Amino acid sequence: MDRFSKYLLTALIGIVALGQFVQVITRYVLQIPVMGLEETMLYPTLWLYIIGAVNASRENTHIRANVLELWLTSERQHTVLAIIGEVISLIVGLWLLSWAWDYTRYAWRVWKESPTLYIPTFYSEIALLIGLTLMMVYTAWHLWGHVRSLAKGSVQ
């Protein structure tokens, strides 16, 4: 999974960068805007953002403001704080996941299309549901690891 996500994120970054490069050259240098390029760039850009968040969740490298860690002295206290944070993340994430599910059902029912190229927007809208689902799986996995380390007594 690590290798797949690395190559997928690299490909998406390359596609977005190439699209922006083409946009700048054609619009500002050649004075010939490419019609529909913004629409097509929506898909890899949105997937890049969501898959990047999933990758941060998988690696457990989300940006955090752990101010409480400054006053905690033991590794056990840090683990308990991590468990509390993971539980809160799961609660909020599952709540957002239910909204994403409702939105995905709506997007499927309505089946909107982009205004210029008539590309179904469902393929970009489904990214939120897939991304949140994967993030909740990884959050639960990290929570399980913290609880297991606390139960084993491997943290002091």
Fill in the keyword field for this structure.
mainly alpha, 156 residues, 4 helices
Uncertain residue ranges: none
Shape: elongated
What is the share of helical residues? Answer: over 70%
Total separate domains? 1
If you average the pLDDT, what whole number results? Answer: 93
- Report the total helices: 4
Helix and strand arrangement:
Blueprint: H1 2-29, H2 37-59, H3 75-110, H4 122-152
Helix pairs in contact: 1-2, 2-4, 3-4
In words, what does this structure look like?
The protein is an all-alpha fold. It has one domain. The chain has helices at residues 2-29, 37-59, 75-110, 122-152. Helix 2 (37-59) packs parallel to helix 4. It starts with a helix and ends with a helix.
The gist of it:
The chain has 156 residues and is an all-alpha fold. The chain is 76% helix and 0% strand.
